[in-house]
Amino acid sequence: MISNLFTKAIRPASFVRCFASAAYVLPPLPYSRNALAPAISEETMKCHYDGHHQTYVNNLNNMTKDTERKPLEHYITNEKGPLHNQAAQIWNHSFFWNCMAPKGKSVPEGDFLNAVKRDFGSMEKLEAAFTNTAVAHFGSGWAWLVHDPKSNTLKVMSTANEANPMQQGLRPLLVCDVWEHAYYLDYQFRRPQFIKNWFGVVNWQYVSDVYSSNKIPTL
């Protein structure tokens, strides 16, 4: 249900989509491979996007070549094992790219900013909570800002490996990849520095648009 809610609410053009049995394709980046430097280098983008992300797409195509292919959200919320793993990693990476922009974009006034102030107190406190979660996450995974539709609140959380908040009935608003391949070429073991610099390229306009696409009243 949450998967349907989310996909109806917003369908970014760069998400991997499939129709009938058409093969999944790697979506184009919304910017050039060197556009996020120095926060994320062109070398890292080539390795991460052209290497890791493309491999997940290839793997899912190979696994589903003799079946009726379904939307990624189906495999994320209804499957376990290899199909789920590959689909979730495709979706997570596509969302990750969309959550960034060259030099970043500031938070617009409106519903999202109001919700942040309501649930965290300020953008600075949200960023601090997100940073703490991203840095403290052990091993591979993702740090998220999510909307909980049951409580109508924003929350910060992390998931291990490929896991996605949609599996818990939560709506993703922002994500940072904390797998080592996302930052090791640029930062080695210095994940805190990566997170600090990553905030400089966060596309808060996009995050706000995702939030407003399924509007939550300000309480």
From TrEMBL:
Cofactors, names only: Fe cation
GO terms, molecular function: metal ion binding; superoxide dismutase activity
Family named by the database record: Belongs to the iron/manganese superoxide dismutase family.
Catalytic activity: 2 superoxide + 2 H(+) = H2O2 + O2
EC number annotated for this UniProt entry: 1.15.1.1
First and last residue of the signal peptide: none
Annotated protein name in UniProt: Superoxide dismutase
InterPro entries: Mn/Fe_SOD, Mn/Fe_SOD_BS, Mn/Fe_SOD_C, Mn/Fe_SOD_N, Mn/Fe_SOD_N_sf, SOD_C_sf
Entry GO terms, CC: cytoplasm
Organism of origin: Blastocystis sp. subtype 1 (strain ATCC 50177 / NandII)
